[in-house]
């Protein structure tokens, strides 16, 4: 049996996720018994890659996001070597897990998940926050089957040059303009990824898939895909407007929301506006050892 480890009022349990700079552990708030997920970021690894200020900015932004389809950050705790981001625990697992055993979803479920994804993405884009790594692994499901987008902002953190590596598992969802290695609009790139996800939900497989990375990139760059025969004309039309390789001609979120297929049974969720009174002291405190650590390293 492992030794129980506490951070503040939280008792850490098993690891439920792992990434380049962080691992996520299930934990319980000992004051009220509520389960939370705690993302643990290694400060030294982040500093070695000159990302410390980006991490601080992204966490601060994340704390100001409050939407029913986005995983909430409750608080941030810092030690000399670690940053602990205490988040809402979403019990239903990843959408990718659901896809692995049901394959394609029925139209009603696929549309509901897509509507919730678009609502969350729209809310964040309105606040200048872009995901840049949207994929079913980053879409969690709560106990009622509602989508909760995880890792908004934080998903952009990875080692230089690792953006399109197969290790991060995301090349199939990447927009063509990112492959061109030029500047890109984060909002428009996110929309492309949403289109890939919608196709996958309805088809049960990816629109762009190839074991050879260069062949995959070529297919994405030219938007070479074929809709299965069971797609309805309205589904095919919407997907074709999203998977437009020219970002300037790609459909906007406002246009997606106006689409007839999207509008069926649509119940828009509303997020909470930025509140200047939200306390960010814990975010600042979590980073107040940076200068000391940096001086130690420099010394």
Automatic annotation (TrEMBL):
Concerning SMART domains, the annotation shows:
S_TKc
Query: Which UniProt key words apply to this protein?
Result: ATP-binding, Kinase, Nucleotide-binding, Serine/threonine-protein kinase, Transferase
What InterPro entries does its record include? Answer: Kinase-like_dom_sf, Prot_kinase_dom, Protein_kinase_ATP_BS, Ser/Thr_kinase_AS
Does the keyword field hold Cell wall biogenesis/degradation?
A: no
A Gene Ontology BP annotation from the UniProt entry: signal transduction
Outline the extent of the Protein kinase domain.
10-262
* Molecular function in Gene Ontology: ATP binding; protein serine/threonine kinase activity
Annotated ATP binding sites: 39
- Sequence similarity: Belongs to the protein kinase superfamily.
Name of protein: Protein kinase domain-containing protein
The species this protein was found in = Vitis rotundifolia (Muscadine grape)
């Amino acid at each position: 049996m492992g030794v129980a480890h506490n951070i503040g009022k939280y008792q850490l349990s098993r690891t439920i996720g792992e990434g380049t700079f962080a691992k996520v552990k299930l934990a319980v708030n000992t004051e009220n018994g509520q389960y939370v997920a705690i993302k643990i970021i290694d400060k030294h690894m982040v500093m070695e890659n000159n990302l410390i200020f980006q991490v601080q900015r992204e966490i601060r932004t994340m704390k100001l996001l409050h939407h029913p389809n986005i995983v909430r950050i409750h608080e941030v705790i810092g030690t000399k070597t670690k940053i602990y981001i205490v988040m809402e625990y979403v019990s239903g697992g990843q959408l990718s897990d659901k896809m692995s055993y049901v394959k394609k979803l029925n139209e009603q479920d696929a549309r509901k998940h897509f509507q919730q994804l678009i609502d969350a993405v729209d809310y964040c884009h309105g606040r200048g926050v872009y995901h840049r790594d949207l994929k079913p692994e980053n879409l969690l499901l709560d106990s009622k089957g509602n989508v909760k987008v995880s890792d908004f902002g934080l998903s952009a953190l990875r080692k230089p040059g690792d953006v399109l590596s197969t290790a991060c598992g995301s090349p199939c969802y990447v927009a063509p303009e990112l492959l061109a290695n030029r500047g890109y609009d984060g909002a428009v790139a996110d929309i492309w990824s949403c289109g890939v996800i919608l196709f996958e939900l309805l088809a049960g497989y990816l629109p762009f898939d190839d074991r050879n990375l260069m062949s995959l990139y070529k297919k994405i760059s030219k938007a070479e895909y074929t809709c299965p025969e069971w797609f309805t004309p309205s589904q095919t039309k919407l997907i074709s407007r999203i998977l437009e390789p020219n970002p300037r001609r790609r459909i906007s979120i406002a246009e997606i929301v106006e689409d007839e297929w999207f509008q069926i049974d649509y119940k828009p969720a509303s997020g909470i506006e930025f509140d200047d009174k939200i306390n960010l002291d814990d975010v600042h405190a979590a980073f107040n050892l940076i200068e000391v650590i940096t001086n130690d390293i420099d010394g």
